[in-house]
Amino acid sequence: MDRQIRMFNASDRKRLSFKVDLSSQITKGNFVKTGIEVIRYDAWGVYWAGIDKNDNWWTLYSGGDRPWEVGSGARPIRGAVYAQDKMEFEGLIVNVGARLDFNKHMHKELIKTGFMWAPMWRRYTDRHYAYGEGTGDGVTVNSDFVKTPPMQFGVSPRLGISHPITDRAVMHFSLGRFIQWIELRDQYVKSWQDYGIAGPDGDPTWQDVNGNGRQDPAERFANMDPLFFGSGADPWVHPEQTLTFEVGADWNFVSDYNASLTMFYRNETQQIQRGSATWNGAKPGYRTQGQTNGRAGYAKGIEMALGKRMSNYFSFRASWTSQWTAVGSMGLSQFGGDTLPDSGFVAGPGFWYDFKNNADGSRTAIALTAAEKAQIGNEANRVVRSWRTTYPDDPYQFFGKVPELQDKPIYIRYGSLGGNTYGPFGARGEEKVSGINGQANVQFLVNTPSGVRFGPRWMSWLVSDLSANVLWKMRMGTRFFWTPPTGGRKIGHGPTDTVADLGMEKTFNAGGRIKPAFFLEVRNVFNDRIDLDQGTDYVVWGLQAARPTDNDFVQYGDFGDRAYFNAPRQTKLGIRLTF
Questions:
Q1: How far is CA 61 from the centre of its chain?
Q2: Of 461, 532, 521, whose CA–CA distance to 496 is shortest?
Q3: What's the predicted TM-score (pTM) here?
Q4: 456-478 burial string, b = 16+ CB within 10 Å, else e?
């Protein structure tokens, strides 16, 4: 389509799962649950976008026997084994358990993200050379630069205790560790761009490599290079971890009405952070972005709530939460780092950058000349020497051989995330609080049985076998810094966000074997349009759109409706069948 801006997604996602659970009251005071789950994936995806007819880029993930090709499914295996025991001791209830998660990769990927820009295989149609596939004239094609990541494990212990204080009050405590694997797309993602290079008739998907005037299969996407600051796969990253702690008390002060006070702490570590990496020195390329477990953060706060437990078909709960949050970096940015060969590698048979075009549209790698090896090798050595000087013996920096390639003269450098910010929070451990946030929640729940008598017969039928849920939330605006025309820097907050959701379900033939039900779900009932934009212009001038002189505003028009806290109102109607 001859449009200025266009984008599309293509994907295929399949999942085969096997799960077994076992629950048993083994003794009067011990209720045990155990289980196992194994999931086998087969998935690939590609996202294509373009700002004009020629300049296009795409982001894809794949795997299998040909992980460099679109449509080759990634097939990792993930699963877990868990056990939990609920113990009761005359009012004291203890829940203790543990979960073991595992993740097994089933295909090879580049050892370091920066290798995406190695001149031997940076073009999309030359990608297979990195995996040891392809023909060479005077060069050695091997798969030393890719390997299957090791199997990963994560253990999640959990403990919960509930103890009566009086006949109307209960104290509760919980402590647990949880892990979360990153999405398949983020594990195996790669980004490419044609940089405005188009084939005949402006086709952005190929180049006429052999000059025969037609598109041969080997020429498809022959004009794609890694996207500058695009995404690179790094399946060596560990799962994200969350440690949660909670202590509180519930008080049944009258009838079915309860009040509660809870203090909580949540510590998130090994969070995914993106950072740049590239191939330097010998025919350097642009930067791409790898991933690292380099971010950390925490939230601590207090929640006060008042509610009514379910009775007479009705319950509600209203709460207010105040929490303090902090974010920062943790350790080195080991997302793949910048990689660099020296002259020894440049002079060997495993380095090349040029190709000869074949009649079928494919390309054959060719060796460097002696003059090229000398010139490129000298430049590579110059950069190696500069890195040795720049990266001294410092616990927050690293320069040395690529650990997985000790037999090859290829070096890597790591730096700290965020310039001079080290440690778990800020500069060498300094804590930096990012905001104090507040949120209010109000929830109403109605659940009626069959045969409710309420007014006329049709009204009784309408309110019987009915469940309805309303949830209203209000969140304080995000904190940010701004500087007024006069005076020093101040702290401001963006707009307060509110949203209400509604869910209803009416069941028919509730006493029968087959139970159809009609349901209604409405997100953002009142279609709240709270503008997300904030910053200096928002605070000083009250603008919720671009300035009238903004270049994008002049070219494309009003941007005032482009960013809101919530999606527009969404309504879903449907029928569920239970049998």
A1: 14
A2: 532
A3: 0.79
A4: eeeeebebbbbbbebbbeebbbb
